[in-house]
């Protein structure tokens, strides 16, 4: 099984800047695609601000979903939105495991399968060679609101 990682991108002025979305790991552009954050069928606009750059694995897992049921409350919880939400408010990195800190984090981690054993092992390997998390991921994880 090929293990791919997420990367989000957002437009800031004229440049496009990297914004780590879920796995806190950069991926090559050939292994990622633009996805629609809130799909058109859910009323999402067809504008650049509603796009994120994601790995194939997360893109397939997300599909057109916008969230899921939060198990402990039985209520609907939306996915983490890399354009409006702060990663550090919803997740914490414990070694190479991504721990949800909120209902939004729980829904996102569960549905995108962020702690799939194959993904965790891959992060361990990359961490062992000093490339996980990346500098940009660390900045994103510590970004304050």
Word description of this protein:
- By secondary structure, the chain is an alpha+beta fold.
- It has one domain.
- The protein is 28% helix and 25% strand.
- The chain is built from five helices and eight strands.
- The strands form four sheets. Strands 1-2 form a two-stranded antiparallel ribbon.
- A hairpin with a 4-residue loop joins strand 5 and strand 6.
- The chain is globular, with a radius of gyration of 14 Å.
Which key features would you list for this structure?
28% helix; 8 strands; two-stranded antiparallel ribbon; disordered N terminus; 145 residues; two-stranded antiparallel sheet
Radius of gyration, taken over Cα atoms and rounded to an integer in Å: 14 Å
- The tally of structural domains comes to 1
User: In percent, how helical is the residue content?
Assistant: 25-40%
Number of E-state strands: 8
With strands numbered from the N-terminus, the spatial order across the biggest sheet is 1-2
Instruction: Tell me the strand percentage band.
Output: 15-25%
If helices are DSSP runs of H or I spanning 4 or more residues, what is the number of helices? 5
Runs in which pLDDT lies below 50 for 5 or more consecutive residues are 1-20
Gross geometry: globular
**Mean pLDDT, rounded to whole units?**
79
Distance N terminus to C terminus?
37 Å
Largest sheet: 2 strands, antiparallel
Series of secondary-structure elements, N-terminal to C-terminal? EEEEHEEHEEHHH
Helix/strand-derived class?
Answer: alpha+beta
